[in-house]
Amino acid sequence: MTAALLVEPGHFELRQMPVPAPGEGEVLLRVRAVGICGSDLHFFRGLTQRETAYPLLLGHEFAGEVARVGPGMAEVQLGLRVACAPDRPCGRCEWCRKGETNVCPDVRFAASHGEPGCLCDYFVAHATQLHPIAERVAFEQAALFEPVATGLHIVENLVRPAGGESYAVMGAGPDGLTALFAARQNGASKVYVSDLVPERLGAAEALGATATFNAAEGSFVEFILDRTDGRGVDVVIEAAGAPAAIQDTFHAAAIHGRVVVLGIPPVDELALDLTAARRRELTLIAARRTVGKYGRALELISSGALDTDTLITHRFPLRDTQQAFERVRDRRDGIVKGMIIL
What we know:
The protein has helices at about 40-45, 95, 140, 145-160, 175-185, 200-205, 220-225, 245-250, 275-280, 295-305, 310, 320-330; strands at about 1-10, 10-15, 25-35, 60-70, 80-85, 85-90, 110, 120-125, 130, 165-170, 190-195, 210-215, 235-240, 255-260, 285, 310-315, 335-340. By secondary structure, the chain is α/β, with parallel strands linked by helices. It folds into 2 domains: about 1-145 and about 305-340, Medium-chain alcohol dehydrogenases, catalytic domain (Quinone Oxidoreductase, Chain A, domain 1, Alpha-Beta Complex); about 150-285, Rossmann fold (3-Layer(aba) Sandwich), CATH 3.40.50.720. Helix 7 (about 220-225) packs parallel to helix 8 (about 245-250). It is globular, with a radius of gyration of 20 Å.
């Protein structure tokens, strides 16, 4: 099979690899669409927070169809169209037994900690990772279900809104936009969104942002305080992974507000203004992937509640993976979500 391997930071090569064989309880998927995630870009930029052995097979947001079944999977039809969850939690640890599989210490996650990703023709998945999709749902739409599920996890599992909350979202990449979408699905009264890319701010407006702000033009915190009479917002979601934005979260939140850090910064340690957090009695939440939201994400995509064309702006064949990652990295040509189509 053909695979796009990241042989070193900033450089992909197409290589031929053996087609993997499915084992007990597994299937072989013919990969059809792969979304480029911000975490993929960390490897592409060489900014990982641990020592990384290249080459890497990246990609974890994907959909495809069953090409072969392993032992014990005779009931799964060949050609079944599925969105594939990237995570295979152990199912045995304390956290898995509680249903908190997103923090499983022994999870096998596509394109992470030595696990293969899906920027290739074929991928072996466990039965528990498969989520069938309707014929009307395109593979590229289904490949969005993991980031959509992450946005839903942030709002519904971590924020747990009563409805009517005000939000600020820092970063209008795909993760910030799915958080905005989830906030609107859960009765947000106002959602303010910042980014540096005008096209991404346009996507935020299309998804229901109350107002947007180009962070190159001043202080997003002042923008929020001006529009809330100095109060701040109930929920701040940092989705850019920018140290300066993370610093700003405590100053944009209202008293008893909640701050959710989703973005992955390029450094492990940051100095935070804990005095600002203490005086407002803020709750700081560090978000980790998603749990229990894959089905709901697919329902929202399948029903058309989410306009996927607002997110998916650029499509590339596998042979152009290098150009695709460069365009996403450089935020060129108004790209919001890049999708590899196989």
